[in-house]
Amino acid sequence: MAIVYKILSKDAWTRARAEGVFLGAPVDLADGYIHFSAAPQVRETAAKHFAGLADLVLVAVDVDRLGAALKWEVSRGGALFPHLYGPLDPALAGDVVDLPLGPDGRHRFPEMIP
Fold first, then answer.
1. Which ranges of the chain have pLDDT less than 50?
2. Cβ-Cβ contacts under 8 Å for 77 (sequence gap 6 or more)
3. DSSP symbols for 27-57
4. In the prediction, which pLDDT does 1 show?
């Protein structure tokens, strides 16, 4: 089972769950797809795009649940990144965990992330 991850604010995830849909963060809406990261990419994504931000969650989604709307496309450094072309149904999420900042200002990832 392959898993992809979305980092977003707790508030955005709470709204998505209440509304039954996540349309994307501002960067997602601007780019036309929802940005995800694979496990080996998610720490760098946090450091590059969410440095110093608190009150974030890490949402895990099984790629098989996303279907054909999930595309793997070349992005940062030539690596393939998962992009979801369409809304995310919050009911498809598996684990949703807090992504706290450590004393060094870097995010502390759960053990499920290698």
1. none
2. none
3. HHHHHTSEE-EEHHHHHHHHHHHSTT--SEE
4. 65
- Which of 62, 68, 11 lies closest to 36, judged by CA? 62
Are the C-beta atoms of 6 and 59 separated by less than 8 Å?
yes
Q: Of 86, 82, 71, 70, whose CA–CA distance to 39 is shortest?
A: 82
Q: Which residues contact 26 (CB under 8 A, 6 or more apart)?
A: none
CA distances from 37 to 6, 16, 68, 84, 103 (A): 7, 19, 17, 11, 24
CB 10 within 8 A of CB 57: yes
pTM summary value: 0.93
Q: How many CA atoms lie within 13 A of 89 on its CB side?
A: 8
